[in-house]
Structure to design on (432 residues):
């Protein structure tokens, strides 16, 4: 029944045969057939089936955003059965897309046996509730989807703490909003004697209790993460004492950063191999490995969490410990997926995040990864535009050339630092 209509058209009959027509039996047979088809579909379904909605308000990359939303849904474990790009210059206040479009999506979900509706835009608590009430589907937005992926991929204790912190920060206003709705809290609520009709009762106490529990958990998580930050600071000081250059690997998610780290440290098959998967946000915690560059010597390579356009603020705050590693590097290695469409927009998205974090002026080497799978003309344009080095981390192509570029960048940094120390010594000598 998934592809068929959920009604039946019967042929016309003469008036004298109407009394012989058993409408109840026809309805029962149709209901039984629908129920049987529903059971068959349920037995075959092993994961959530999702409808994706991306609203186009005139952005030049709206279609690319919809494709990225599909990749996020796939990484989270959903089966995408339908995607739609909806053009809306002005969004509807409550439902974003209007009641008529929601009815259309509800019908589409029924016929495709979908139970999940994912929006590419961030939804407010009231908007999500209104859309859920109108469609009867589970409704989540892009931020929730990313948080779910982070929770799915979090391996270490610190990563799990960071994910929980981000989830609580995101859910706190939504949980409180739902609590207020269920408790019917109003301007004078909170006591049995006072307040307007419909707002009296113990709801205020329950609301305050929920708020206190969430705030207590947030404080606990922040203290735990501060302890991890101090431990990382000690490791960084140790590296500084050893005077070992540090290269932070940054880039858009799934650009191949972890694979490149394995190629640099010859850990493709060794126990020290870093997880590298064809999924978004496979790496959530900073991972450091020591490699070697001719002319420089030992070098620390640090893999960081992948960036994404419009990175949710709660994630940026929760993963500030990961992002701290970027600021302590001597050189940034910006990895770009040269084989994917929109490489220039993804590079710009990462640069905007680096600019917001205050790291945009750091010495940077661009690695155009997956060059073996890129279109030659497109790759040539990217090399000319970014002055990047074409490489294939998976096939170890272009790694020597990339190491030479890194050696030049690290050498410039070391020479500048040496000149600054000499200048400082001369000034000190003058004052003495």
């Amino acid at each position: 029944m998934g592809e068929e209509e959920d009604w039946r058209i019967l042929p016309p009959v003469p008036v004298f045969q109407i009394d012989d027509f058993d409408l109840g039996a026809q309805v029962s047979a149709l209901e039984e057939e629908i129920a049987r088809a529903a059971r068959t579909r349920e037995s075959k379904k092993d994961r959530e089936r999702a409808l994706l909605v991306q609203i186009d308000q005139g952005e030049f990359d709206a279609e690319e955003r919809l494709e990225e939303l599909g990749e996020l849904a796939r990484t989270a474990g959903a089966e995408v059965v339908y995607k739609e790009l909806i053009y809306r210059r002005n969004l509807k206040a409550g439902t974003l897309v209007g009641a008529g479009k929601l009815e259309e999506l509800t019908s589409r979900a029924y016929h495709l046996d979908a139970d999940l509706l994912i929006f590419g835009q961030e939804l407010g608590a009231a908007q999500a509730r209104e859309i859920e009430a109108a469609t009867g589907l589970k409704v989540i937005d892009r931020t929730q989807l990313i948080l779910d992926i982070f929770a799915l991929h979090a391996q270490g204790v610190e990563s799990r703490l960071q994910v929980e912190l981000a989830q609580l920060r995101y859910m706190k206003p939504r949980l409180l909003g739902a609590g207020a709705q269920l408790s019917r809290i109003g301007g004078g609520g909170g006591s049995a004697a006072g307040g307007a009709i419909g707002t009296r009762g113990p709801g205020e106490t329950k609301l305050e209790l929920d708020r206190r529990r969430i705030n207590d958990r947030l404080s606990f998580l922040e203290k735990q993460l501060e302890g991890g930050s101090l431990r990382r600071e000690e490791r960084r000081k140790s590296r500084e004492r050893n005077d070992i250059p540090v290269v932070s690997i940054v880039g858009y998610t799934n650009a191949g950063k972890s694979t490149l780290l394995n190629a640099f440290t010859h850990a493709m098959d060794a126990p020290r191999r870093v997880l590298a998967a064809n999924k978004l946000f496979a790496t959530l915690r900073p991972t450091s490995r020591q490699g070697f560059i001719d002319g420089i010597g030992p070098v620390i390579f640090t893999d960081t969490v992948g960036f994404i356009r419009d990175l949710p603020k709660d994630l940026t705050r929760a993963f500030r410990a990961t992002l701290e590693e970027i600021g302590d590097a001597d050189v940034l290695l910006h990895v770009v997926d040269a084989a994917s469409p929109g490489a220039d927009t993804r590079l710009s998205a990462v640069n905007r995040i680096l600019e917001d974090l205050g790291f945009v002026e750091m010495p940077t080497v661009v690695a155009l990864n997956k060059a073996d799978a890129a279109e030659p003309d497109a790759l040539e344009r990217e090399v000319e535009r970014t002055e990047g080095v074409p490489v294939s981390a998976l096939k170890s192509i272009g790694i020597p050339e990339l190491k030479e570029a890194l050696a030049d960048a690290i050498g410039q940094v070391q020479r500048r630092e040496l000149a600054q120390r000499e200048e400082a010594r001369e000034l000190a000598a003058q004052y003495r």
Notes: The first strand starts at residue 49 and ends at 56. Residues 318 and 399 are 33 Å apart (CA to CA). The chain has 13 helices and ten strands.
